[in-house]
Amino acid sequence: MVAEQIKKIWGESELANYSAEKSALPFSVWASLGYRPKKGSKALKSVTYIERKDAQGNVIKRYPRKVNLFYYRSVVPIE
């Protein structure tokens, strides 16, 4: 989902630089690393699934959670 958005915005050649763990992060993580989104940049939309488990650890239910991510090309260091 995120890769398709990166391809649309920055082109297919940028997909070689995409790493889900390092290059597309939520605002709070970028802020803790000393970065902020560029003015006018839009977040990439993604979905993660949360699992609800019972006492034995069996999955009872999975539900989606929307996540807004910023790509490394859309953030700048905080001054």
Task: Please tell me about this protein's structure.
With 79 residues, the chain is of the alpha+beta class. It has helices spanning 2-10, 27-32; strands at residues 24-26, 35-37, 44-53, 59-71, 75-77. The strands form two sheets. It has a three-stranded antiparallel β-sheet. Strands 2-5 form a two-stranded antiparallel ribbon. β3 (44-53) and β4 (59-71) form a beta hairpin. The longest helix has 9 residues, at 2-10. The termini are far apart. The model has no long low-confidence stretch (mean pLDDT 93).
Number of strands: 5
Total of DSSP H or I helical runs spanning 4+ residues: 2
- Average pLDDT figure: 93
Structural class by secondary-structure content: alpha+beta
SSE string, helices as H and strands as E: HEHEEEE
N-to-C CA distance: 32 Å
Q: What Rg, in angstroms, do the CA atoms define?
A: 15 Å
Biggest β-sheet description: 3 strands, antiparallel
List the helices and strands and how they pair.
Elements: H1 2-10, E1 24-26, H2 27-32, E2 35-37, E3 44-53, E4 59-71, E5 75-77
Antiparallel strand pairs: 1-4, 2-5, 3-4
